[in-house]
Amino acid sequence: MVRVDRPHYLLHTHLFMKRLLTFIDRFFFEKISASGFGLMRIAWAGTILVSMLGGASDVVRYYSGVGISPISFAPFVLRNAYRFSILDTIVTDPFPVLLLWSTLLWCLFCSMLGLRTRLMTFLSFVLLCSFHERNIYILNSGDSLLRLIGFLLVITPRIDAFSLDRLQQRSLAPITMSIWPYRLLLWQFIVLYLTSLWDKLQGVMWINGGVIASVFHHMDYFRFPKIVADLLSPFSFSLTAAFLVFELSWILLLIPRKIWRFALPGRMQNYSLKRCLLILGIFFHSGIFLFMNVGNYSFVIFAGYLGLLLAEDFDVLRNFFNTGWKRRNPTDDAKISVLYDGSCRLCQRSMFLLLSIDALHRLRAVDFRNPALLKKYAPDLTEKSLDRALHIRLPDGKTFAGFDAFRVLAKHLPALWITVPFLALPFVSPIGRRIYARIAGKRHACVQGSCAQK
Length: 454
Description:
This protein is an alpha+beta fold. The chain is 58% helix and 7% strand. It folds into 3 domains: 29-178, no CATH class; 187-321, no CATH class; 331-453, no CATH class.
């Protein structure tokens, strides 16, 4: 039998197609962390919730058939193509409108907490679009971006990171998703900033640098007295140029880094351009919110920024927030030992909850029912004392119990940072200790999975 070699061009074509398909698969379906989109879901729902609550007194006036925009006016004042709203035909009277508005608030609250995450996020998006399309004259650019982010959340495969649904699965394994929703969000920001830049360059005020000074003297937008605007006006040209350069820089995210990185100074060549743009964006949009009355626009931008965070970005943030912690505790095994009852299901769930929100990786779960672990991490504590209250031991040997332990843990868990100022109030500690002692006095002592009243 004569062996016939495959022609070289067929072999090259086969290799090319294989590489092309591998590239396409990696470009759209590479697995990334879903944590960014989970945080974006929380911020998205929270932003809408606050915005809708802020307009609670105007719900009937803005959205019902007896308000300032009757249904009969819709064909003349609203667009008719590609428009959908439940409030056009099904819900028009004041009471059903208020009921639908309340339903939207509930769906947003559930989406933010992660209860029935997929369903509640979808219902929130549909109801949000219905209210927005019912009266477009009270909307701003932030509301348009909210709908875009909502649509992206609806079609994204995994949005249940940082959700109560996730806690029910009892798994600490990181959630991953395909990269294509991340790319869509990134492209949306690039389009947003570049189209904004193009629109600015059509006039003369952005080019000559006078637009910032003009806005600062616009009493409907500027939040401070005229004397503050006069003091800031000399910086108008510099701020205008900086903002234009910032918006233009987003196009570099479409260009491979190896093409343009050599144009940067040596120390900056290894920096992440995306992270630099996000940091600058936080400063720019925080300044916009601080000085200008532009509604929820800045917060919507920040919500979208969260979706652009990948696993390596979280690692950088974790290292940043752990800098002081590592300086005080230089050993690799420096952890906060949380001593819990491994034979109690309630204690196991509580420990799982703490580990699931341990974004800085500072906690160590120690089952004090395990003699070896108890001897290693807390040899001076007895099971009897540990069974009465939660105990934690810091790397320096300090031990806290009960409410005081929870107050210390709150400082090390980003999800609880919002409670730290409240827990530090003078009158909170005595009340907290008393409440904790009452709960602990009625708790069930669990041994080997069975509980008996103490």
